[in-house]
Amino acid sequence: QVQVVESGGGLVQPGGSLRLSCVFSGRAFSSYYMGWYRQAPGKQRDMVATITNGGRTNYADSVKGRFTISRDNARNAVYLQMNSLEPEDTAGYYCNAGGPTGYWGKGTLVTVSS
């Protein structure tokens, strides 16, 4: 059974940092293209960052230079380090394995507010 479980969300002040974690189980993690997406209330779900099984990364323009995606194949985990957070980053953050038609977690909420 495939499971995708996110953690690490919470409330943070503008300018602060958070690190999201995602653990994937039930399939061979190292072969999967992984990504983080986010969805704010009333908006569509958008790509934040992706990482291939070879470690190549891609970022949304709005987070370039502030967010970093990484993976640890030994731990079946993918991470999103978020720095210089802005109120506009407030959203539910979702971990994905295998692209939009692949596997999704239930999400973790990030709120950036003073």
H/E element string?
EEEEEEEEEEE
Count the E strands. 11
Structure classification? mainly beta
> What is the general shape?
globular
Flag low-confidence runs: none
Strand-residue proportion = over 45%
Structural summary, described in words:
This protein has 114 residues and is mostly beta strands. Helices cover 0% and strands 50% of the residues. It has no helices and eleven strands. The strands form two sheets. Strands 2, 4, 5, 6, 9, 10 and 11 form a seven-stranded mixed sheet that branches. Strand 7 and strand 8 form a beta hairpin. It is globular. The termini are far apart.
Q: Which properties best describe this structure?
A:
seven-stranded mixed sheet, 50% strand, 11 strands, mainly beta, 0% helix, four-stranded antiparallel sheet
Short description:
The protein is mainly β and 114 residues long. The chain has strands spanning 3-7, 10-12, 18-25, 34-39, 46-51, 57-59, 67-72, 77-82, 91-97, 103-104, 108-112.
Task: Summarize the topology.
Layout: E1 3-7, E2 10-12, E3 18-25, E4 34-39, E5 46-51, E6 57-59, E7 67-72, E8 77-82, E9 91-97, E10 103-104, E11 108-112
Parallel strand pairs: 2-11
Antiparallel strand pairs: 1-3, 3-8, 4-5, 4-9, 5-6, 7-8, 9-10, 9-11
